[in-house]
Amino acid sequence: MTELSPALKQATPVLAARGEGVYLFDEDDRRYLDFTAGIGVTSTGHCHPRVVEAAQNQVGTLIHGQYTTVMHRRLLELTERLGEVLPTGLDRLFYVNSGSEAVEASVRLARHATGRQNIIAFSGGFHGRTMGAAALTTSGVKVRAGIGPMMPGVAFAPFPEAYRHGTTEAAEVDRALAELDQLLMTTTSPKDTAAIIVEPVLGEGGYIPAPPRFLAGLRERADKHGILLIADEVQTGVGRTGAFWGHEHAGIGPDILITAKGLASGFPLSAIAAGEELMSKAWPGSQGGTYGGNAVAAAAALATLDVVRDEDLVGNAAEQGQRLIEGLRKVAAEHPVIGDVRGLGLMLGNEFTTSEGAPDAATAARAHAAAAEEGLLLLTCGPHGNVVRMIPPLIVTAAQVDEAVACWSRAVARAVA
Ligand code: PMP
Q1: Whole-complex ipTM
Q2: Does ligand 1 lie within 6 Å of residue 116's CB atom?
Q3: Which CATH number fits the domain 16-47+312-416, given the four candidates 2.70.150.10, 3.40.50.280, 3.90.1150.10, 3.40.50.2000?
């Protein structure tokens, strides 16, 4: 019998047969509340009728309009449409298929534009699994283990983690920025540093929002030294955090923005955005790909952006995120094993710790498994695997949030029993 590679790890035992809105159904038609959204991808829910219609129409017209051979209308329309939601000045786009590829494209652009090699990334960051993106990734050693040597020219600075270090956010931001300054004095000279890449909310590394003063500090240093600031918004973009882009919470803007996941409701599509001057420094022919900017994915992205606007999904993410975090905090108040509940919008994590404050991955795993049995699909994250995260589709309703909190409450009670 031919089987899938054992290198794949499946977080839940579900064999998905169909999806509808916030729900997934297995082959026995058992219904699950999908608070994984395909790792933050199905922003408009599973099979939103407008996304389905746009994709179906496109499939019958033009599936593959290979963009280094010919141009196609949907990609031009999408580019125009993204201009309405991108930060002012980031008006040049390049498309690929996945988050990892877009991360690599951003590194390529940053190196070409600055003539410098080094990239600063943050401890606990996740930027992907392709070799260049993996070299920037330290959310868990499994992504790097045994595949080295890694791409050189990467230096790591600490990300503020007040809860894990048992300190205040202000003290953590001071420490992280001081260590970044130290890194620029001792390890990677500003003259050799092309870019700083950061997630507005540390994702796979444990769902830790970057404090606004930290992001402002990165912006300041980038400006001072002519270093480019890259916002990896693969997971935080397109409304996920209750703002269209995660960096908006800090009131700063990046030089390069990376978007993927929620952009096309499940079709593979990612992009980097930068200003005209910066993008013009990319060496001709240096970016490309066979499938990038696929016509069906672009049509789905156009429909996704329409749904996000027409159904005010950014506002809904903020509103339901508030309802969800309040519910989760009530559950945590009853169960001291959940030491921290945090996040932004509909990107929320529950960190499990022992009474001594050590990471408690075993109880987190039991709660995660019990939740699936209760009909609530979730994921874990963090280097210790002790953070259970919730990333429902942005269309989630108050009633579905309440249903999820009730399932979660029962699941945690079972995990600690
Ligand atoms: N960057 C971030 C912040 C991510 O969360 C992810 C995926 N979890 C990636 C990059 C990589 O995206 P992909 O899996 O589509 O390559």
Answers
A1: 0.99
A2: no
A3: 3.90.1150.10
